[in-house]
Amino acid sequence: MEFTVKSGNPEKQRTACLVLGVYESRRLTVSAEQFDAAVGGYLGNLLRRGDLEGKPGQSLLLFNVPDALCERVLLVGCGRERDLDDRRFQQIMTHVATALNETGATEAVVYLTDLAVKGRDLNWKIRQMVEVVEGSQYRFDLLKSKKDAPRRSLRKIILSVPGRRELAGGEQAVIEGVAISAGVKLTKDLGNLPANLCTPTYLAEQAQTLAREFPALRVEVLEEADMERLGMGALLAVTRGSAQPAKLIRLDYRQGPAAHKPYVLVGKGVTFDTGGISLKPGESMDEMKYDMCGAASVLGTLRACAELKLPLNVTGLIPAVENMPGGRATRPGDIVTSLSGQTIEILNTDAEGRLILCDAMTYAERDEPAAVIDIATLTGACIIALGRHPHGLLSNHPPLAHALTAAGQAAADRVWELPLWEDYQEGLDSNFADMANISGSRDGGAIMAACFLSRFAKKYHWAHLDIAGTAWKTGKAKGATGRPVPLLTQYLLDRAAEAQREDGRAAH
Is residue 422 part of a domain? Predict the structure, then answer.
């Protein structure tokens, strides 16, 4: 899909389809009122006749509107103006995308930027329009012998801005929306692939493909022998039962000043999780192919970062493994030595994500990072605590937690912070090692997992995103969501803006 912005009056648009909004009680939006005045009150007469109530999800396609230069007018219900928040706006745009695809139009000019979304500016609305429309177009039919062939004649969407002064900001919002959407698509594609195709080796190959597409990215892949030499005993303990070799994938993006420390994203890459010897129940085990969505989101975010040419230094670290039972598999009660030198009693082999992450997090120390954020489908307990709407957030640095919370609000990809108090730490005590990988209780499972990881994040500012409830949808809508790519990209956009402000102050 091609997106662009332009200014101009709605009645002057020569286009295949003009999109205008109608609030409940049949009240036209500002742009729709302007258009209606130019066509002799044609829209108002239709509304008074009861053809459209203006409720969310409603639309009315009009042809041959008198005195109009456009071929079609699509009226879209926007609900009550006072109820128009982020969620409602996204729902409206999803409906618009669906309706436009059914019109047969190749191009549309959308005048919905005048909707008053609570607490949101014009550029936010434009970026969301791009992201929502692109998301609504997503289909994963790569492995189907007969592809679905939905009607998709629409090729270009033009988004209105009030005047020429808003063009530059609107164009930048489109650029950001397109880059984030491409990162989300990559993340979805990787998540939706079955585990017989998306192996640790495949993830490494995808990172190499990404580096070929974007010269600003450099990739390095550590093999099991490399990890053995380094002493990554925790990571390697997870992969012992699998025929698939583990990989530690490193992607470096260096477009900021050399003196600036990198932001490190660590993504859990368990390409399939049986639970190992602590075998999971069979029900819904197929969804354990999504246990690498943290890794996929790192690749998606780095892709967005490279496409946006952000003036930052960013590193992506992906410990990629399969967790399988087998004759060589790690057993409950085994004790391993992590890269940090700390010993771990593995009481449950299904608590494997924290084992691969802790070695990757220790490995990140060599970069002297500005901050480390790990992203992991880590605990079912997080779903019990928060449901499937926000990501779980825990951090050892309040300013970092605040920055991620703010980025989540800005991107409409929210987080909710859980406590990381010292009170919880004793639950990981072991009689035989420095720590156990689980506590002896089911209480606070998401917090306990983060407590474990915190023991490997003493040398830098760190945050943990538990995306177990947000990385994919179940049921009829089953599929990867691409989250938290919007959140992570917004966080990096904010850091780039912050760095530019600091450089500006230093120059003066």
Answer: yes
